[in-house]
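hiii, so i know i said id send this last week but things got crazy w the move. better late than never?? heres the sequnce for the chain we talked about at the cafe, plus the structure i predicted for it. fair warning i was half asleep when i ran it
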Amino acid sequence: QVRLQESGPGLVKPSQTLSLTCTVSGDSLGANFYYWSWVRQPPGKGLEWMGAITASGSSYYNPTHKSHTSISRDTSKDVFTLQLTSVSYEDTAVYYCVMGRLIWGSKWSDYDNWGQGTQVTVSS
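okay and structure toks below
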């Protein structure tokens, strides 16, 4: 059973950079072909896909957020990270790391597995 666990700050100030890490256990990033993604759910809204990366390092981004989103991975540590620069109040959400066979999913059933989620609040 693959387990994903998000970690990172719960509170960031506007204009700062948000960095979140997803630790994968029970399997390795490169063991099977998956898209390792970050999604978020703002308060009262649906799931929003931010971007994905493969074990080989190919990355894909939601065009809406591409200019301030970066996803990287470290296969030696089985982690992948999300960086969101110049955050604003609209970036307040629960952030989830997920794995699946689709590059871009819009609902939970599009993914094979996901972490518990981590609340990120942007506030001054």
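btw The first strand starts at residue 3 and ends at 7. thought thatd interest u
miss u guys!!
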